[in-house]
Amino acid sequence: MFAVGGWDDGTLATAEVYEPESDKWERIAHMKEQRAHHALVSWQGRLYAFGGNSHGGPRSLLNRLSSLETYDPKTGKWTSLKSMKEKRDGLCGVALNDSIYAIGGNGLSSVERYDLRMDKWTDSCSLKMSRNAACACVVDGKIYVIGSRGDKKASTSVEFFDLKGDEWLFETDMEAARVYASAVAL
């Protein structure tokens, strides 16, 4: 289990891993950039941190990040990869089929897909609505994006993306509105 970036009286580049055998958290190499409000996914034994905000003060366009970096536990190093086309903070992300998806973000409905084999970002189909501080997970090969912050309030809406259909569709709304939540598939 890894904890990466975030905020503590300033934006963090620190990262830690929890070792259950010793019941201890241990520091690992710092990311190349400080980041909070970013996305973090794992794929085939590596971590991928992308987007976010690099400044501890009020979030602004000037502080948003488009960068992507990966951590390899075997080497203990972070490596910079190709940056996204768009700067995003408050985004969510998932890994699916050798790709990473950067979904929404503050004021954004756009989605970018990073092909891990080709080291290339491409535009993917946009969401039906902008999603800031939403959460996402993959269920049965579909990407679900849940909740959001828009118009200064939390949202009950859910969208899913079926790769075969190449479009986002609304799913049944949640009963409770939520923002800054987490989602996981069992």
Strand content: 35-45%
- CATH architecture heading: 6 Propeller
Q: In what order do the strands lie side by side in the largest sheet?
A: 4-5-6-7
Uncertain ranges: none
* Mean of residue pLDDT values: 94
Which CATH first-tier class would you pick?
A: Mainly Beta
CATH topology tier name: Neuraminidase
Which outline best applies?
globular
Count of separate DSSP helical elements: 0
Order of helices and strands: EEEEEEEEEEEEEEEEE
**Count of separate structural domains:** 1
**Alpha-carbon Rg, integer:** 16 Å
> What is the fourth-level CATH superfamily?
Kelch-type beta propeller
- Profile the largest sheet: 4 strands, antiparallel
For the terminal residues, how far apart are their CA atoms? 17 Å
Number of strands: 17
InterPro entries: Kelch-BTB_domain-containing, Kelch-typ_b-propeller, Kelch_1
Keywords: Kelch repeat
Brief descriptors of the model:
four-stranded antiparallel β-sheet; 17 strands; Neuraminidase; 186 residues; mainly beta
Would you give an account of this structure?
The chain is mainly β and 186 residues long. It has a single domain, classed as Neuraminidase, CATH 2.120.10. 0% of the residues lie in helices and 44% in strands. The protein has no helices and 17 strands. It has a four-stranded antiparallel beta sheet, with no helix packed on it. It has a four-stranded antiparallel beta sheet with strand order 8-9-10-11, with no helix packed on it. The chain has a four-stranded antiparallel beta sheet with strand order 12-13-16-17, with no helix packed on it. The chain is globular and about 45 Å long.
